[in-house]
């Protein structure tokens, strides 16, 4: 994964840029929606307001998650990033999707509204598209660079990313660009046909789009907040490193959990060589913990517990979790 300080600075830039863009766009869309009477334009204004709230929540996530560990939170505050990012996903749904769906159904099934000055809507949508493209390009640039650093494809990195900020901005900006095209189509078809049903359909589609984005982001942050296993490549590296230690006869169990962005907790149960004394065990545990932290920068906490590989209860627990027996030292 990328260096934590550099990644945090890049994430902050991405979020701040997106927030400033969305706030400006929200004002433009609201004014255009009032002037044109377009339901789709008002839905897009709500969309931008939701995105602005999202950026505020993401900034809160970035700042609060950087606090150092203390007595009440000995593992730090890394998971605050996931909590506030989850609230951002809820905001997208509550502030954007619900209003857009309401506006859409009201337009389709309610009393028709007369369209006025559609040219204002077209101009605002074009400006909004240009501004959103700047924010979207920054998010894409960050994800591409981080994916390249981890030697992953763009989409593989998005699936495994443990920093929700750039993913949230990328998804919401992508949805914003699609939403702008839908609003443009709604206003255009309303002008061509004289029916505001098209405007309402565009609003409904915008609402569905936002609901889908909110669900995807909420699902991602839910998994991270609950406590997801570290990346498989990191897990394999830790397993191989411990398995190669001369003091270890078998790696009985290995558990990892993301405690925050670039912050991994490692718990290993190992069967040591029975010929080792207590002092040898202590020195071996300290050495291996230091080696793991040096070799894998994301490893922040390491706990190594000596256990017998033949213990039936422990063996049953490992088999129930992974379906694999403990690995003997080669």
TrEMBL record:
It comes from the Bacteria. Its main location: membrane. GO terms for cellular component: membrane. Coiled coil: none annotated. Pfam families: Cation_efflux (PF01545). Keywords: Membrane, Transmembrane, Transmembrane helix, Transport. GO terms for molecular function: monoatomic cation transmembrane transporter activity. SUPFAM superfamilies: Cation efflux protein cytoplasmic domain-like, Cation efflux protein transmembrane domain-like. The chain crosses the membrane at residues 12-35, 82-102, 122-140, 169-189, 201-218. It is a multi-pass membrane protein. One of its GO terms (biological process) is zinc ion transport. It is found in: Membrane. Residues 16-224 form the Cation efflux protein transmembrane domain. PANTHER family: HUEL-CATION TRANSPORTER, PROTON-COUPLED ZINC ANTIPORTER SLC30A9, MITOCHONDRIAL. This is Cation diffusion facilitator family transporter. It comes from Amycolatopsis echigonensis.
């Amino acid at each position: 994964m990328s260096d934590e300080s550099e990644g945090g600075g890049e994430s902050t830039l991405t979020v701040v840029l997106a927030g400033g863009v969305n706030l400006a766009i929200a004002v433009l869309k609201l004014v255009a929606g009032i002037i044109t009477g377009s339901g789709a334009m008002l839905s897009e204004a709500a969309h931008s307001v939701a995105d602005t709230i999202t950026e505020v929540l993401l900034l809160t996530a970035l700042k609060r998650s950087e606090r150092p560990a203390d007595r009440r939170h000995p593992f730090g505050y890394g998971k605050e990033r996931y909590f506030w990012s989850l609230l951002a996903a809820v905001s997208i749904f509550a502030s954007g999707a619900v209003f857009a769906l309401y506006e859409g159904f009201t337009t389709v099934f309610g009393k028709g509204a007369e369209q006025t000055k559609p040219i204002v809507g077209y101009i605002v949508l074009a400006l909004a598209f240009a501004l959103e493209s700047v924010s979207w390009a920054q998010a894409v640039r960050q994800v591409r660079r981080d994916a390249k650093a981890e030697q992953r494809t763009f989409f593989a990195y998005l699936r495994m990313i443990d920093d929700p900020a750039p993913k949230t901005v990328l998804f919401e900006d992508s949805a914003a660009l699609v939403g702008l095209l839908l609003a443009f189509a709604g206003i255009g078809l309303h002008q061509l046909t004289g029916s505001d049903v098209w405007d309402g359909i565009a609003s409904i589609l915008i609402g569905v789009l936002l609901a889908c984005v909110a669900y995807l982001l909420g699902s991602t942050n839910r998994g991270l907040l609950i406590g997801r296993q570290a990346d498989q490549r990191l897990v394999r590296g830790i397993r191989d490193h411990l398995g190669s230690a001369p003091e270890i006869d078998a790696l009985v169990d290995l558990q990892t959990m993301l405690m925050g962005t670039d912050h991994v907790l490692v718990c290993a149960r190992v069967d040591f060589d029975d010929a080792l004394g207590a002092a040898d065990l202590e020195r071996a545990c300290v050495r291996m913990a230091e080696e793991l932290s040096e070799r894998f920068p994301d490893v922040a906490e390491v706990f190594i517990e000596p256990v017998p590989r033949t213990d039936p209860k422990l063996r049953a627990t490992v088999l129930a979790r992974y379906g694999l027996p403990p690995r003997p030292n080669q």
